[in-house]
């Protein structure tokens, strides 16, 4: 194999990754969410969503309604949580606060929130409201994230395919 072809294949791989990154950032801007697409990792929202479902988020709504399914992050937890809005209230400034619960859970999410927190703040804690989903498409993400060796294997195979099987 000549050096020129190898370099071309490497640059094509770089363009694929940079294009995917630009698509992600563009989608983040359009949806006003730092994470516009998430994968369901647990069964806490069954039967509405199952493990491996891919969710599409939208965060341009000023307020959420009771019954909306939201994705939120809390301090000191790396994984976003997908649960339904159980209660809401607004303070004098018009800021919305939400209490959430997983459909398949017995109790509300207060034990999952940061210590001392009883509600999520719409403006700071909510990544987005679920607006659509694809069932079970996210199992590849789960498979890769649950075992470091799976990740190395997956990304290695992608790199080999891009470098050597490109016309």
TrEMBL record:
- CDD domains hit by this protein: S26_SPase_I
What InterPro entries is this protein classified in?
LexA/Signal_pep-like_sf (IPR036286), Pept_S26A_signal_pept_1_Ser-AS (IPR019756), Peptidase_S26 (IPR019533), Peptidase_S26B (IPR001733)
Q: What is its EC number?
A: 3.4.21.89
Q: Which GO terms describe its cellular component?
A: signal peptidase complex
Task: Name the UniProt key words of this record, in alphabetical order.
Answer: Endoplasmic reticulum, Hydrolase, Membrane, Protease, Signal-anchor, Transmembrane, Transmembrane helix
Q: Which GO terms describe its biological process?
A: signal peptide processing
**Parts of the chain that traverse the membrane:** 7-24
Q: Which reaction does it catalyse?
A: Cleavage of hydrophobic, N-terminal signal or leader sequences from secreted and periplasmic proteins
Q: What is its main location?
A: endoplasmic reticulum
Identify which top EC class this enzyme belongs to.
Answer: hydrolase
GO function terms (MF aspect): serine-type endopeptidase activity; signal peptidase activity
Recorded topology in the membrane: Single-pass type II membrane protein
Per UniProt, subcellular location reads as:
Endoplasmic reticulum membrane
Similarity section:
Belongs to the peptidase S26B family.
Function as written in the Swiss-Prot or TrEMBL entry: Catalytic component of the signal peptidase complex (SPC) which catalyzes the cleavage of N-terminal signal sequences from nascent proteins as they are translocated into the lumen of the endoplasmic reticulum. Specifically cleaves N-terminal signal peptides that contain a hydrophobic alpha-helix (h-region) shorter than 18-20 amino acids.
**Assembly and interactions?**
Component of the signal peptidase complex (SPC) composed of a catalytic subunit SEC11 and three accessory subunits SPC1, SPC2 and SPC3. The complex induces a local thinning of the ER membrane which is used to measure the length of the signal peptide (SP) h-region of protein substrates. This ensures the selectivity of the complex towards h-regions shorter than 18-20 amino acids. SPC associates with the translocon complex.
Protein name from the UniProt record: Signal peptidase complex catalytic subunit SEC11
The organism encoding this protein is Saccharomycodes ludwigii
């Amino acid at each position: 194999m000549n050096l020129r072809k190898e370099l071309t294949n490497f640059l094509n791989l770089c363009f694929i990754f940079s294009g995917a990154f630009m698509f992600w950032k563009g989608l983040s801007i359009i949806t006003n969410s730092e994470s516009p697409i998430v994968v369901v990792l647990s069964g806490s929202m069954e039967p509405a969503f199952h493990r491996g479902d891919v969710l599409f988020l939208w965060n341009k709504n000023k307020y959420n309604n009771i019954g909306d399914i939201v994705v939120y992050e809390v301090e000191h937890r790396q994984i976003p949580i997908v649960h339904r809005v159980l209660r809401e209230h607004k303070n004098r400034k018009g800021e919305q606060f939400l209490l959430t619960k997983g459909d398949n859970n017995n109790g509300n999410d207060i034990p999952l929130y940061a210590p001392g927190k009883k509600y999520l703040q719409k403006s700071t804690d909510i990544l987005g409201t679920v607006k659509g989903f694809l069932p079970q498409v996210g199992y590849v993400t789960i498979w890769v994230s649950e075992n470091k060796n799976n990740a190395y294997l997956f990304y290695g195979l992608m790199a080999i395919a891009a470098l050597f099987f490109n016309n």
